[in-house]
Design a protein that fits this description.
By secondary structure, this protein is an alpha+beta fold. It has 20 helices and 19 strands. Helix 1 runs antiparallel to helix 10 and helix 7 packs antiparallel against helix 8. Bound molecules: adenosine-5'-triphosphate (ATP). It is found in: Cell junction, Adherens junction; Cytoplasm, Cytoskeleton, Microtubule organizing center, Centrosome; Cytoplasmic vesicle membrane.
C-alpha cells in the first residue's frame, strides 16, 4: 500500500514537472519532447484503458465536444468535406485521454476504487483517513478542474479554427459564384455569337451581295448600317438621277419638240421655198433662189448635226440602267457635264434660232421687198411682156433654162425629204428605245424596292434579336444579382451565427481567467506542498526499492537453486537414459527437420506439416491426411538447429571410438532432405564428418601424455552396387572380402587407407572424397548424391604406461536418398540408380528388422551397403542414425516412411557395446 502511494506520488510529480516544463518552454501538449518524456506513462494509461479503465473525465470531455460539434454541424448544413473536417476536430479531445494528465486521472479512478474497496473491508472500526490520502484527493480535484479548463481552452481554439475555416469557405463560395456568373456570361455570349453566325449564314444564303460579309451579328449590323447608308445615298443618287433623267427627258422632249418644230418649220420653209421657187420659176430669175437653197441646205446640215448629237445622247441614256450604281454616279457626273454642254449648245441653238429668226425676218422683209420689187418688176415685165410679145424666142430660152435647173433642185428636195423621213424613223426608234429604257428603269426600281423591303425585314429581325438578347442579358443580370444577394445573405447569416458563437466563447473565455487565477494559486500552494512532500516520498521510494531488491534477490536465489536442480535432474535423466540405451545396446535415432529454404518456397504444396515440441526434445508430430501423428525418437532437432548442436549429440559416440569402440553414424532420409548437409556440411559450416575428426584429434592431443594414437582414413562409395575408392585417382572397383588374418572381420583389398597426422590433412582428404563422389541433378535435388558414401576412420591407440592397445572404428555414412522413382523424375541410368539405391536401403531395412527381431540370421550380405556396415551394425557396436526429414506437405509421404523406419530402428537392441582392446599379452574383449 505504502509502495503504491509512493509510486502514485512519483507519477504525479513527473506529470506536474512535465506540465511545468512545457508551460515554461512554450511547447504545446503535442510537443515532441513532451511526447517522448511521457510516453511510458501514456502507454501505461492506454494499456489500462484497454483493460476497461477509460478515464471518465476524458470521456466526458470527448462527449461534450462531440455534442457541441454535432449541433453546430447540423445547424450549419455543411458539406461532407466540412463535416469530415469537423470530425477531425472532434477527435482531438480523444487525444486528451492520452496525455499524462489523463493518465494520471485514470490513476485517480483506480485509487478511488481501491479506497472504496478498502472502506468496505475496513468496516468503520478504523481511524480517520490518512493525511496523504486527503492531500491526494485535494490534488486530484484540482487536477480535474485544471483538465476541465484545458478542455475549455481547446474547445475555444477549435471554435476559432472553425470560424476561420468558415470564413475561408465563405470567401471561396463567393469566388466560385463570381466565377460561375462569369462563366455563364461567357456561355451566353458564345450562344449569341453562334446565333449571329447562324443568322449570317442565312443572310449569306439569301443575299448574294452579302456573301463576303463577316460572321457575327455586330459586323452584319454594321455592314447593314453601311449598306443602309449606301442604299440611302444610292437612293438619293437614284432620285437625283431620276430627277435628272426626268429633267433630261423633259429637255429631250422639249428639244425633240423644238427640233420637231424646227423640222416642221424647216419643212414649212422648204415648202415655202419650193413654192417660192416654183413661183420664182414661173415668175422670176434663178440666182437668188439658188442662194436661198444653198442657205437652207446649210441650215439643214446644221440641224442634221444637232440631231446626231441628240441621238448620241439618247443612246448614252439607254446604256445607263444596265450600269451599276457607282458607274451611274460617274455617268451622272458626265451626264451633268453633257447636260451643261447640251444646255450651252441649246443656248447656242437658241441664239442661232433667234439669229435665224432675225435673218428669216430680214429675209422675209427682203423677200417682201423682193416680192414687192418683183411685183413691180413683174408689172414692169408684164408691161415689157406685153411689149415684147412680139419677141417670143427669148422667153422660150429662159423657160428652158428654168426647166433645165428645176429637176436638180427637185432631186435635192427629194433627197432632203428622204433624209427627213429617215430621221423621223430614227427618231421613232429612239423613242422606242427610250420607252424600253424607262421599262428597265422601272424594273430596277422594283428590284431595289424588293431589296429595300428585305433589308427592312432583316433590320426588323435584327432589332427583334437584339431586343431578345438584351432581355436575356437583363434576365441573367437579375438572376446573378439574386444569386449574389442570396449568397451574401447566407454567408452574412453564417458569419453572424459564427460571430455570435465566437462572442459567446469569448464571453466564456473572459469569465475563465478569474477561475484560472484562483486555480493557479491553488496549484502554487499545492506545488509547494508537493515539493515538501518530495523528501517524504523519496524516502518511501527508497524503502520500497530496498524491499523490492531484497525480494528480487531472494527470488533470483530461489530461481537459481531451482534451475540448478532442474539441470541436474535433466542431466541425471539423460545419463540414466543413456545408460539404459547403452545397456540395451540400442541404436540411437536422431531426427533432423530440414528448414524451409528459399528455393522450396517457390513450389506448390509448401505448407508445413511437421512440428517439433520445444518442451519435448524427443517428439516430432506430422500432420498426415488430416491426422497428426507423433513419433518418439531419441532426439529431435528443430529446423533451426545448428550443425554444432547436432554434433554435440554425436560427440560422445565419437569419443568412444578413441576408447576402442566400433561406432557407426549414418544419415538416412529422402533425397534432398539434408543428409549430405548434416554429414559433410559446407566449407563455412562443416558437418559431422569434419567436426568428428576435429574432435578426435583434439582428444588425442589431450591424451597424448598417456596414449599414443594412429589414425587412418579410407573412403568408399557404393554406386549401383559397385564399390569405388573415393581416395584413389582412378576410382577403381573394389570388392569386400573376409580378412585373411582370421579375425573374421571384413576387408576390402586394394582400398587406399591413408595415415592422417593432423586435422588439416583430413580436411584435404575429405575434400577429395567429396569431389570424387557421384552426384547428379534430380527434380528433388540439384546436386543429389547418387551413391552411399562411407568414411571409415580407424583409431589405434596404445597406452604408454601399460602398452594396452585399443582399436576403434568410426563409420560415417551418407546414404543415397531414398526416393520415389516417379517423383524424382528418374529415367534410364537414373532409374537404374534409383532402383539400386532403393534396393540397398531395403536391405538395410531388412537388416534392421532382423536385428530388432533378434533373429539368428541377419541378412547383411543382401547388399554391399549392409555387408560393409556389418562391423558397425552388428552386436556390441554403437550406432546412431540421423533421420533427415522435410517439413513440407508435398514430402509428407516420404517423411512418414522415414519416421516409421526410424521408429523401427529405435527399437533395435544391439546389446551392450564392446570395447576392442588388446593387452600386451593377450587379446581380450571387455
Ligand atoms: N539444415 C539445413 N540448413 C540449411 N540448408 C540445408 C539444411 N539441410 C539441407 N540443406 C540444403 O538442402 C539442399 C539439399 O541438401 P542435401 O544435398 O544435403 O540433401 P541430401 O539428403 O543429401 O540429398 P541426396 O540424397 O539427393 O543427396 C542443399 O542445398 C543443402 O545445403
Amino acid at each position: 500500500m505504502y509502495a503504491f502511494y509512493s509510486l502514485l506520488v512519483y507519477i504525479f510529480y513527473t506529470v506536474f514537472k512535465k506540465e511545468e516544463e512545457s508551460a515554461l518552454g512554450g511547447e504545446g501538449p503535442d510537443g515532441a519532447t513532451g511526447q517522448n518524456e511521457t510516453r511510458h506513462v501514456s502507454m501505461e494509461t492506454q494499456s489500462r484503458r484497454r483493460n476497461g479503465h477509460t478515464p471518465s473525465l476524458a470521456r466526458r470531455g470527448f462527449d461534450g465536444v462531440i455534442d457541441s460539434g454535432g449541433s453546430s454541424g447540423d445547424s450549419d448544413g455543411l458539406s461532407d468535406e466540412e463535416e469530415d473536417d469537423d470530425c477531425a476536430v472532434e477527435e482531438d479531445p480523444g487525444a486528451v485521454a492520452s496525455t499524462p494528465l489523463a493518465a494520471f486521472l485514470s490513476f485517480k479512478q483506480e485509487a478511488e476504487k481501491r479506497r472504496a474497496s478498502h472502506a468496505l473491508l475496513e468496516t468503520g472500526g478504523k481511524g480517520p483517513e490518512s493525511p496523504l490520502v486527503a492531500v491526494m484527493s485535494h490534488l486530484l480535484s484540482f487536477l480535474e478542474q485544471y483538465a476541465h479548463l484545458q478542455q475549455l481552452q481547446q474547445q475555444a481554439e477549435q471554435y476559432r479554427l472553425q470560424l476561420q475555416r468558415r470564413r475561408v469557405r465563405h470567401r471561396r463560395q463567393v469566388k466560385a459564384l463570381r466565377a460561375s456568373y462569369r462563366r455563364r456570361l461567357r456561355d451566353k455570349s458564345s450562344v449569341i455569337s453562334t446565333l449571329e453566325e447562324a443568322i449570317s449564314q442565312q443572310q449569306s444564303e439569301g443575299d448574294r451581295a452579302a456573301s463576303g460579309f463577316q460572321a457575327g451579328l455586330h459586323k452584319l449590323v454594321e455592314s447593314l448600317c453601311g449598306l443602309q447608308g449606301e442604299r440611302s445615298q444610292l437612293r438619293g443618287e437614284l432620285r437625283l438621277l431620276h430627277a435628272q433623267l426626268e429633267q433630261k427627258d423633259q429637255d429631250r422632249h422639249v428639244r425633240a419638240q423644238a427640233f420637231q418644230q424646227q423640222i416642221e418649220e424647216l419643212k414649212k420653209h422648204i415648202a415655202e421655198r419650193e413654192d417660192e421657187l416654183a413661183r420664182l420659176r414661173t415668175e422670176s430669175g434663178v440666182t437668188d433662189s439658188e442662194k436661198r437653197v444653198l442657205c437652207l441646205s446649210a441650215e439643214n446640215e446644221s440641224l442634221k448635226q444637232s440631231l446626231t448629237v441628240t441621238q448620241g445622247l439618247l443612246q448614252q441614256l439607254s446604256v445607263l440602267p444596265s450600269q451599276s450604281s457607282c458607274v451611274l454616279l460617274k455617268e451622272n457626273e458626265t451626264l451633268r457635264s453633257r447636260v451643261q454642254q447640251l444646255e450651252s449648245s441649246l443656248q447656242q441653238r437658241g441664239d442661232q434660232l433667234s439669229y435665224l429668226e432675225r435673218r428669216s425676218e430680214q429675209s422675209e422683209w427682203q423677200r417682201c421687198e423682193e416680192l414687192r420689187r418683183r411685183e413691180e418688176r413683174l408689172r414692169e415685165l408684164q408691161l415689157e411682156l406685153d411689149k415684147e410679145r412680139s419677141k417670143e424666142p427669148v422667153v422660150k430660152y429662159v423657160t428652158q433654162t428654168v426647166e433645165v435647173e428645176s429637176p436638180a433642185t427637185l432631186r435635192q428636195l427629194a433627197e432632203a425629204k428622204e433624209h427627213n423621213e429617215l430621221l423621223t424613223e430614227k427618231l421613232a426608234s429612239q423613242s422606242k428605245k427610250y420607252r424600253q429604257l424607262e421599262e428597265q428603269l422601272r424594273c430596277s426600281d422594283e428590284v431595289s424596292g424588293n431589296l429595300q423591303r428585305k433589308i427592312i425585314a432583316y433590320e426588323v429581325e435584327i432589332e427583334k434579336l437584339r431586343g431578345e438578347l438584351l432581355k436575356e442579358i437583363g434576365h441573367l443580370e437579375e438572376r446573378k444579382e439574386e444569386a449574389v444577394k442570396a449568397a451574401a445573405e447566407c454567408s452574412e447569416q453564417h458569419l453572424q451565427n459564427l460571430q455570435e458563437q465566437f462572442t459567446g466563447l469569448q464571453r466564456r473565455l473572459a469569465a475563465l481567467p478569474p477561475t484560472l487565477r484562483s486555480m493557479k494559486t491553488d496549484y502554487a500552494s499545492l506545488r509547494s506542498q508537493v515539493r515538501n512532500f518530495s523528501d517524504f516520498y523519496g524516502a518511501a521510494v527508497m524503502e520500497a526499492k530496498k524491499q523490492l531488491t531484497a525480494v528480487i534477490s531472494e527470488m533470483s536465489e530461489a530461481n537459481k537453486d531451482l534451475l540448478e536442480k532442474y539441470r541436474k535432474e535433466v542431466a541425471l535423466r539423460r545419463k540414466y537414459h543413456e545408460q539404459l540405451v547403452e545397456l540395451k545396446g540400442n541404436i540411437r535415432v536422431l531426427c533432423r527437420v530440414k528448414p524451409v529454404l528459399k528455393e522450396d518456397q517457390h513450389d506448390e504444396g509448401q505448407m508445413v506439416v511437421v512440428t517439433t515440441d520445444p518442451n519435448n526434445e524427443s517428439a516430432v508430430t506430422v500432420l498426415h491426411k488430416g491426422k497428426s501423428r507423433t513419433f518418439e525418437l531419441d532426439k529431435v532437432f528443430h529446423p533451426q538447429a545448428t550443425q554444432e548442436e547436432v554434433f554435440q549429440e554425436i560427440e560422445p559416440l565419437v569419443t568412444s571410438c578413441i576408447d576402442g569402440y566400433h561406432v557407426c553414424i549414418f544419415a538416412y532420409g529422402q533425397t534432398g532432405s539434408g543428409k549430405t548437409y548434416t554429414m559433410e556440411g559446407t566449407a563455412e559450416n562443416p558437418g559431422i564428418n569434419q567436426r568428428a575428426l576435429k574432435h578426435l584429434f583434439s582428444e588425442i592431443e589431450d591424451r597424448k601424455d598417456m596414449w599414443t594414437y594412429s589414425v587412418t582414413v579410407s573412403s568408399v562409395e557404393i554406386y549401383n552396387e559397385v564399390l569405388r575408392d573415393l581416395l584413389s585417382k582412378d576410382g577403381e572397383k573394389l570388392d569386400i572380402k573376409i580378412n585373411p588374418d582370421g579375425t573374421g572381420q571384413l576387408h576390402v583389398p586394394g582400398l587406399r587407407v591413408i595415415d592422417v597426422k593432423s586435422f588439416q590433412h583430413i580436411k584435404k582428404i575429405l575434400a577429395k572424397a567429396r569431389r570424387n563422389r557421384v552426384t547428379f541433378g534430380t527434380q528433388m535435388n540439384h546436386h543429389s548424391s547418387r551413391s552411399h558414401a562411407l568414411l571409415t576412420v580407424t583409431v589405434l591407440g596404445t597406452d604408454l604406461t601399460t602398452g594396452t592397445k585399443t582399436s576403434g572404428k568410426l563409420n560415417l555414412v551418407d546414404l543415397a536418398g531414398s526416393e520415389r522413382v516417379w517423383k524424382s523424375g528418374a529415367e534410364g541410368e537414373r532409374l537404374k540408380e534409383a532402383q539400386n539405391i532403393n534396393r540397398s536401403l531395403l536391405a538395410l531395412g531388412d537388416v534392421i528388422q532382423a536385428l530388432r527381431g533378434r533373429q539368428t540370421h541377419v541378412p547383411f550380405r543382401n547388399s554391399r551397403l549392409t555387408y560393409l556396415l556389418q562391423d558397425s551394425l552388428g552386436k556390441g557396436n554403437k550406432t546412431a542414425m540421423v533421420v533427415q526429414i522435410s517439413s513440407l506437405e508435398r514430402n509428407v509421404e516420404e517423411t512418414m516412411c522415414s519416421l516409421k523406419f526410424a521408429q523401427r530402428v529405435c527399437k533395435v537392441e544391439l546389446g551392450p557395446a564392446a570395447r576392442k582392446i588388446e593387452t600386451a599379452s593377450m587379446c581380450e574383449q571387455i
